Amino acid sequence: MDFLNTFKISGSAMRAQSRRLDTVSSNLANIETTSTPEGGPYKKKSVYFQSTPLSFKDQLDGNLRRATQGVEVKKIIEDQTPPRKVYNPSHPDADGEGYVAMPNVNHMEEMVDMMSATRSYQANATVVKSAKRMALKALELGR
Fold first, then answer.
1. What pTM value is reported for the model?
2. Residues 100 and 94: beta-carbon distance below 8 Å
3. CB–CB of 14/129 below 8 Å?
4. Distance (Å, whole) CA 86 – CA 99
């Protein structure tokens, strides 16, 4: 059993979930942002993952046969759904009819996504701890 591959795979998943959590936090922080430097309201961002093989060196070492892969953030894209229209004629960004274009961020969806990212991160942290414990036990057996 190769413990280093376990650490690499779980580490890549933890980095990816951390990036996902950062993106969700950004979405929640900007849920009321009606004006951005690009113009218009904030647009929800979503993270897309992609499996990634280990490095070329690891493949040369024979790990390719085991099809060991990690995960990485492939891209972060902006959601192109139209903004919500909210009637608030006193708002500085209101149009001529009194409607304000609000971000296309759904608070409940973001909270669910945040919980999912957190649980995935915790699961991979548990894998790292378990692999570390097993490696230490294997070293104790060698005494």
1. 0.80
2. yes
3. no
4. 5
